[in-house]
Amino acid sequence: MSNPRVGRDVYWRRRLLVLAILIAIVWGVLQLIGLVRGDDAGKAEATRPTPTPTTAPTAPPTTPPADQVAVAIETDEAVCEPENVRIVPSVPGGQFAGGPVAIDLMLTSLDGTACTFRPSTRELLVVVDTERAPIYDSSVCRAAFFDQSVSIPAGWSTVAPVEWTGRGSGAGCGSSEGFAPPGTYTLKIGTYGGEPGEVTFKLARRAPETPETKPTPAPAKKPGSEPTQKATSEPTQKPAPRPKPSSTAPVPR
Question: How much is the pTM?
């Protein structure tokens, strides 16, 4: 007869052994899963692109370059003395006769002091002429050649764009005066008592505008106005004349 106590010890030992085996198997599976996940994470980390650091754009230096020098231009509202102002004119090329003419005037203070030039008919003289005769004389006009004030800084020159109407002065510089024809002209400008300037320029002839020719539309046909063909008169054929019966009587047999 077996000892029931020994049987119970063996039973519990077997149960503990099975439990230990199950724990070991579970632990081993968990370790294996951890190794697999670690390898996958390492591969993903290795294949992930490494971000390159971006540098923010640097602001341009506020200090001027060494080869540039800041210059302070001195101006003055005091009126320039006419004899101390030198005017050098220039006329851009490619201009046409029959319209206004653009002119650039470079004004310089001869004594080197800053001032403001205010032109007037008493202080400015402008003459435009050709080899044959004068075309424009500002002394005939009641208004100045240009009326804008020009500030001339000390030791510098100022370029002022002005415009000549392109018309002759005539008796009173009226708007009814004709335009200067195509040709070569000389412009002389200066202040009374000052140093004048001179430039020669050309005014070209403007190409005539050719009128646009439009095709003449065909006249619309009115309903029922279709032309009818006239019937041609064909020659009529007359029947040949029948032979007349002979007047000879038949001879009896």
Answer: 0.56
